[in-house]
Design a protein that fits this description.
The chain has about 160 residues and is mainly alpha-helical. Helices cover about 50% and strands about 5% of the residues.
Amino acid sequence: MKFQIIKHYEGLHDGDLKQIGLQPKMCPAGVWTEGWGSAMIGLNGKFLKGAANKATAFKLAKVKTIEQADALFLVDIRSTLLIIRRKITVTLNESQTEALASFIYNTGGSSTLYRLINTKSPALFDWWCSHYVTGQGSKKPLRGLVARRRSEATQFTTGKVQFFN
């Protein structure tokens, strides 16, 4: 599997050219991530969140190269694939698995989405495109999340990888 949607929308961050290597970035939900969107854990054992924790995120960051980002991604994606094996009762092809993995990797998952998939609901595409599209408690959809959800739903239903941003 290539996980093109995850890598496209998560991206690798090298925004500070004064520093060598990749740097962490804060996602729309306010969680600091590194590599291909791997959530960072603070010293308290919880997600490292908020702009006030930028210095801590940079201090705790372990991913400095693409190779390190790829290695961490392979570790992270295993738990995502395990969730799919446990929650999905119908057979998925590789494209469907990748699309669902992108959703779970980004959101943590949704029992409603699992139900829609398992029942082969005709409402699946529309639901997928309209949920989990806001961040940090906002009710306003974020353009990047709307694009990602549409990419995931398109790949799941058609098998085609398409980006909408």
